[in-house]
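Q: Two folds, back to back.
A: First:
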Amino acid sequence: MDWAGWATFGFVATVLLTGIMVTAQLAGWSRMDIPMMLGTMFVADPDRARLAGFVVHLGVGQLFALLYLSAFALLDTATWWLGALFGLLHGLAALTILVRLIVGIHPRMASDRAGPELGTILEPPGLLGLNYGRHTPLFALLAHVAYGAVLGGFLTPR
């Protein structure tokens, strides 16, 4: 397996994905803040939470890059368009499953079902993350497609 490519391009792809989402947030197109969502699972202070969440997101990105690399190795091919397709599927799973599951374990996120409690500081993502803005699904999918395209374009299955 392409371990050097995994370490390098998994990092690059995750930074790109996070950068697209942060840019969408700063431009006012989405309010989804992945580092904040992940970081506030561990730290209550928003500024420290963003740093902790970014580190967690880099780690999770590396784990997903390992799954992509494994899939490319099993298929004995890696192309940017196959990676982009994997990214689209990954993004759809993230929007429909992963962000919905985070509500169940996140100590500082309100629930759609139960509503806010005393310690909640984040609203729930809602269907496809739409509670964070109507453009959120578009940018989340775009970010995940870019993530997959980078991995597919640069990883070498062996």
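A: Second:
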Amino acid sequence: EHLMQCLAYIDLNMVRAGVVDHPSEWEMSGYNEIQNPRMRYSVIDQEGLRGLCGFSDAEKFKESHFHLIEDLLGNGSNHRKSC
């Protein structure tokens, strides 16, 4: 759970900085790597990260990450969460 919170914190850095409204708008973000993994030249070890976060299923990991980000954006806590 703590690792997922850290991922969300990092994904929301550019939102907190006022550069973008949503982490998907920042092309080189971890958010995009998780939500739309590259077939080649991926920066993140998807399988390793999923395992560390307690997920064996890629879709469930993506869904959990997506909902965490959306929940934080929706309730305004993206400004208060820290890792």
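Q: And?
A: The longest helix spans residues 58-75.
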